[in-house]
Amino acid sequence: MNQSTNQQHQSHADDQVDQHGQGAHGQGYQSQQLKQSHPEIEKQPDRSQHQNLHNDQSHHQHSNHGHQDGDHQNHNASHDHHEGHYNPLQMPCDWEIARKHALSRRTAWEKKKDPMKTLQIETCPCCGFEVDREDIPYCSDPMALSFLGSGFTLFYNYLKYCIIILFIQLLVKQLHNLYTNFNGSYCSHIKREKMEGHIIEEPYCPDSIFLQLSLANKLDNREALEMMQVLNFISIFIIMFVLIYFRKSQRQIDTTIDEEQLTPADYTICVKNIPTGLNVDYKYELKNLFENYSVLDSSKQIIVRKVVLVYDIEEIIVLEKKLDELLQSKKDAIKQSNFNFHHESVQKIDEEIEHLEHQIHKIEEEYETHNTNFAGIAFISFDDESMKQLVLQDNPHTQWERMRSHVNRGKLRSLTNNDLQWNGQKLFLEQAPEPNDVDWEFIHITTSEKIFKRVRAWVYYILFESAAFFIIYLISHRLALLGDEAHEEELKGKLDEDTKRKINIMSFSISMTIVLFNKFGVAKIVHYIVDDEKISNKTKFQISFVYKYALALFLNAAIISFLVDIVILKNVKGAGGFIQNESQIFVLNAIFPPFIWCVDPWSLCKNIWRKYIMSKGDKALLTQQEANKLMEEPDYLSAKRYSDVMKTMWFTFMYGTAIPLGTLFSAFGILIYYFVDYYNILRRRTVKESISIQLSTEMIEMLEYIIAWCAFGEMIMTYTFFKEVSKIDILLIVLAILYQQLPMEDISEYLFPVENNEEIKPYAEGSASFDTDYDRENPVTKHKALAQWNKKQQSAENPNPKNKKILAQQEEFGYAGDGHFGRR
Questions:
Q1: Alpha-carbon distances of 583 from 393, 561, 576, 652, 656, rounded to whole Å
Q2: pLDDT band at 4 (very low <50, low <70, confident <90, very high)
Q3: Do 809 and 819 form a contact (C-beta atoms < 8 A)?
Q4: What are phi and psi of 277, to 5 degrees?
Q5: Which of 191, 390, 455, 628 is deepest in the core (most CB within 10 A)?
């Protein structure tokens, strides 16, 4: 919204206040006079019930969960599909448009432009991203990804600190353990057992490098054990300090990126609990409300630049499913008519599609014109960030207030003059997520439905994990018993080499099957469960996924082995026992994820499928939107990356005392993973999500459980091997519990404050470099907003295109701003 529009709205607001005696809240012109004489009541809203003289009429593009920016079916009225106009349903598809779409969605910088030569910028018609891009060098610092938001740079910094923490553990504690374990002699001692009347001699441990380098090999070295406990205590204290500083490092990166790059969220708040069903123009009323009553200090000017409403789009989703069925019928009809796109049966279906598109278009117009199905949520953008911060600061709320409001159907008793309210409902304000971090399909879901679905999701998760845990437990238990039986047969001399080889192959096959199930099967099922929670924010979706997936991986990899080998069979250092099995898991964890990620079967399969489909030409029978999706690289999902790393860290710190070699494997495994993942995101993935620092903060909270797992693992291993619990182990447990209860983020901010020196930029200047915006992501307004954005970028008369902004910077500052980030 430009300045003139705001002035018109403000003038219109003043006229309406003069004309109407009573407003929407029973307040009229008299309220304006009271406001001037009594500033303490200035936050009691004064608005009249009227419709604004104009409404934006938009088309709708439904966004399926987990996909953004042109990957959804866009079903618009056919009269817009004239020649030269982008039609997402066109068939046969235009592969050149699809190719340009794929280029615009690459993880690459926008190409630097010469402002003296570049008058127009080519953008993708379906998503609005620039087509002309240049690759990011593989050797670049992850800060090069800052144009995607801070989330991805924070992830690579997260990996760096995980590697640092593992190497600290390795240098302070585990190198000493490896040395004393290697020089130990316990496993080479001979024991005698009586079996079927014969005395059999065998070493205490099988001949294995894993056992030789494990805690089992120094069970007779009390002095080394005590030294190990002291070094563990020291390493934990160092890691605690590193974790506190790690939080500061993440905040510093997020602040630096925020200073370098302006995004829509810098100007925007999300407003919830807005009354629905009122016969008013919500955009105008919200603009008037926030410009006049949202701050306590009446001398502070607040200017609203844009209001984007959220709608309940369930009705449209149902119609779009019918439209998808018609598209499939059209494809079948084309095949039956020997690929005659103008056959009578095909044209008949086209007419039905046109009619349904027109119906969807009319519904969308109804949504915006009459505020039909308004969900009570809006995104409001201000003229600069200071205004946004002031509004948020003056309108706090508590979780308790939100719970009470939900119970009372949006109402709150005992509202004060300082509460920003509408029809007795307190408006709940919060920092808005980035536009492509919002899940527009689920944001309208009511609180009651969210509670029900999340409780149900947890029930499904517990049932699934219990079943998976039980099945893996039975397999592991049977495998362990088989190993014990084979060992007894071997001692009796009755086990031939072929049988032994078959048992080893079966053992490895079962172990690999469990690993593959954890890697692929568990991830898929957990994704379905979390998707059913209908979370309105992609960052929160990722957090929920990581919690459930990492916990499942950890239970299946670590806890089952503990129960089977230690608790039930009590086979700790024997053949096929705890030490041997967990050592193999350490090796698989270090090698398998980086190897699979390097081979990248997902990209290979998609490349093969893409070549096959494109070889069909017009017979491929893809809509333009489907072709666009096919030409993209696979989606990058941060949650799976975090889960893999989290499981490795937890597992390493729990069993690192018994198997110090595992720390070495994990450190180099994550190091390799870092470089492979960075290559993949630059060359073999499409990024469609804008992840906030909230995900990184939650992941640090989860990472800090390594303190508890380390203390617990130390105590369990000491008791398992030495049948005692030392005082230092108890002290570590107490310390770990205290550490988990302390507000570590607040402590980190106090010890290591981070200053934000961001220069305040007006919305008109900042919005010129936005890659996306709320109206370009909102399914109801997306089509029209994208069309206007594309036209604006290609217009020589545009006062704020990116190339003219570069020229202005050259004139004012003597340098060209970095086109990669939209700012210097």
A1: 53, 11, 11, 10, 10
A2: very low
A3: no
A4: 80, 10
A5: 628
Highest average pLDDT, of 384-393, 460-469, 509-518, comes from: 384-393
The per-residue pLDDT for range 601-627, each reduced to its tens digit, is 999 999 999 999 999 888 888 999 999
User: What whole-number distance in Å separates Cα of residue 379 and Cα of residue 744?
Assistant: 31
| pLDDT tens per residue across span 710-752 | 999 888 888 888 888 888 888 999 999 999 899 999 999 999 9
Largest CA distance in the chain: 110
Mean pLDDT of 165-190: 88
SS3 letters across 747-801: HHHHHCCCCCCCCCCCHHHHHHHCCCCHHHHCCCCHHHHHHHHHHHHCCCCCCCC
Q: What is the pLDDT of residues 274-311, one digit of tens each?
A: 999 888 999 999 999 999 999 988 888 999 999 999 99
Tokens representing residue 232 in the block: 């563990």
Q: For residue 70, what pLDDT band results from cuts at 50, 70 and 90?
A: very low
Distances from the Cα of 627 to the Cαs of 75, 205, 587, 632, in angstroms? 15, 60, 41, 9
**Which of 381, 378, 380 has the alpha carbon at shortest distance from 309?**
378
Strands 198-203 and 109-110: unpaired
Q: Residues 6 or more apart from 758 whose CB is under 8 A from it?
A: 255, 258, 259, 385
Angle, to 10 degrees, between the axis of helix 538-554 and the axis of helix 522-531? Answer: 140
User: What are the start-end ranges of the H helices in 371-446?
Assistant: 385-394, 399-407
Q: Find the radius of gyration of the CA atoms of the chain.
A: 31
Q: Roughly how many angstroms between the first and final C-alpha of the chain, as a whole number?
A: 25
DSSP-assigned letters across all residues of 667-696: HHHHHHHHHHHHHHHHHS-B------HHHH
Cross-strand bridge partners of residue 202? 191
Rounded Cα distance between 659 and 578, Å, is 10
Tell me phi and psi for residue 378, to 5 degrees.
Answer: -145, 150
Pairing of strands 374-382, 190-195: unpaired
Residue 142 CA: distances (Å) to CA of 151, 152, 159, 165, 679: 11, 8, 11, 19, 11
Any residues with CB less than 8 A from the CB of 674 and at least 6 apart, and which?
Answer: 156, 159, 160, 163
Residue 193, SS3 per DSSP: strand
Among 611, 683, 608, 602, which Cα is nearest to 133's? 683
Output the six-digit token pair for 431.
């920092």
Q: Give the residue ranges of DSSP H helices in 294-416.
A: 314-336, 344-370, 385-394, 399-407
Tokens linked to 345: 């049966």
CA distance 245 to 500: 52
Dist CA 123 CA 786 (whole Å): 10
Q: Give whole-number Cα distances, 434 to 618, 688, 777, 793, in Å.
A: 38, 12, 10, 21
> What's the CA gap between 127 and 123, in Å, rounded?
8
Q: What is the mean pLDDT of the chain?
A: 79
Buried/exposed code over 177-207 (b: 16+ C-beta within 10 A; e: otherwise): bbebbeebebbeeeeeeeeeeeeeeeebbbe
Min mean pLDDT across 489-493, 735-739, 755-759 is at 489-493
Contact 239, 736 (CB under 8 A): no
**Which is nearest to 555 in space by CA: 518, 592, 605?**
518
DSSP 319: H
